[in-house]
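Quarterly update, task 2.4: BV8-bound model.
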Amino acid sequence: MTATGRSPAQEWCRRAERLAVLCGAGLSVASGVPTFRGPAGLWRQYRPEELASPTAFARDPLLVWQWYAQRQQAIARCRPNAGHRALAQALAAGRRLAVLTQNVDGLQQRACAAAGVEADDQIEELHGCLWRLRCTACGARRMLSTALQIDTPEDLPRCASCGGLERPAVVWFGEGLDQRLFERAIAAARASTVFIIAGTSGVVEPAASLARLCAGHVIEINPEPTPLSAIAEVSIRGGCEQFLPELFG
Ligand code: BV8
Ligand code: ZN
């Protein structure tokens, strides 16, 4: 504890000129969204290559879309938690904070909308968003406001302008991240004086490597150790829903 009664990590966050947060599925656990690799993780019943890949989609678009529609239906029942709200409130308060999220659930955007924050240029959705669709033929994009229900091939979403099959606008394994978006994320990580690794297993690249670009204080929030724990000056063995509000409080 410092003389102010706050922990060093809290002091660093209070004073930080520029902050970056790399968010993973652990941030959405408290909202009821399953993680990928945890005991009840999404990947338990499926392997990533079976579903989150262009090959899987080309081979069986119905199966892949059923998985995404099922995730949309589950996430539609979830609400942002105190961790998402802490980041949204920091943005609302004008903190120079870059939210680099690997999550495709859209919960951070919902928390920012609820906090009245127009944060589009401060949230980088590194792996896209499962509420956004992209036409595989003409590239047209659209945002869904409700979850899809996909039972038969006829339910597969089709582009209003060209009739092409639409896909989730997420980054699949083996697909490159949006170049300009990732360059912005690299710049934000490099410029950060405090970098928080919030709820990620740190196994997916190139997102995980962003944490290695911060020359300042690196803080990890995760109940478990990860490959990124070694670069964290402070590892908080707990939940984002508790410790993000404490760091930004
Ligand atoms: C690329 C979108 C090149 C889709 C996702 C070997 C073989 C094959 C490929 C590779 C390989 N080595 C590296 C690669 C590349 C591959 C990769 O990294 N694979 C890994 C698995 C080894 N990466 C790619 O393919 C990337 N693209 O490299 O392309 C290229 C370049 C140019 C041109 C062409 C090609 C693309 C990666 C993006 C994949 N898409 N998602 C979808 O979601 O459906 S990844 C997926 O994993 C999600 O986005 C997720 O966010 C991300 C990371 O997972 P986590 O968020 O960390 O979730 P996880 O469950 O793992 O961990 C949760 C953590 O939370 C745990 O640590 C837990 O302890 C903690 N926790 C639990 N409760 C809490 C908590 N923490 C805090 N609070 C709590 N309450
Ligand atoms: Zn189209």
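Highlight for this quarter: The pocket of BV8 (ligand 1) is lined by residues 24-26, 29-30, 35-38, 41, 52, 102-104, 127, 170-176, 199-201, 203-205, 221-224, 226, 239-241 (CB under 6 Å).
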